[in-house]
Amino acid sequence: MQDDALDRLFAEAAASPPAPSPALMDRVLTDGLALQPAAKTLARPRAPRPGLLARFAGLFGGAPGLAAVSAAALLGIAVGYLNPTVMDGLASGLSYTGTEEFFPSVDFLTDEG
Questions:
Q1: What is the model's pLDDT at position 100?
Q2: Alpha carbon 89 to its chain's center
Q3: Which of 64, 63, 44, 43 has the alpha carbon at shortest distance from 55?
Q4: Phi, psi of 98, deg, nearest 5
Q5: Is residue 63 part of a domain?
Q6: What pTM was computed for the model?
């Protein structure tokens, strides 16, 4: 055969490929299903246990409750430890009513020239 005739023969064969028989397809699928591994059952993951700090905060109603109790304890320790004179100094800083002059001479804003 010539090369042209052989090329035509290959082109005809490629244009209409033969379909596999249903019996062949059944055998191939049966063999494939037999070789597949069986599905494993997965264990349900357990919920993680809360940590020590989370359990301790749970005793006080969560993180906000623990923060409030901690702040109250810290204030109680401060009041019990500090002298009354120190507490007067701290309390007077909260109620300071004096005035401050941030610009002692405001004349530079109103002067011309």
A1: 65
A2: 46
A3: 63
A4: -70, 170
A5: yes
A6: 0.36
* Cβ 50 vs Cβ 58: under 8 Å: yes
The verdict on residue 37 lying in a domain is no
Residue 88: domain span? 58-94
Q: SS3 for 5? A: helix
Q: How crowded is residue 60: how many other Cβ atoms within 10 Å of its Cβ?
A: 14
Say how many residues make up the chain.
113
- Quick: pLDDT tens for 15-53: 888 888 999 999 999 999 999 888 888 888 888 898 998
pLDDT tens sequence across 45-81: 888 898 998 888 888 888 899 999 999 999 888 777 7
DSSP assignment, residue 95?
T
Please check whether residue 62 lies inside any domain of the structure. Answer: yes
Helix axes 52-59, 63-81, angle to 10 degrees: 80
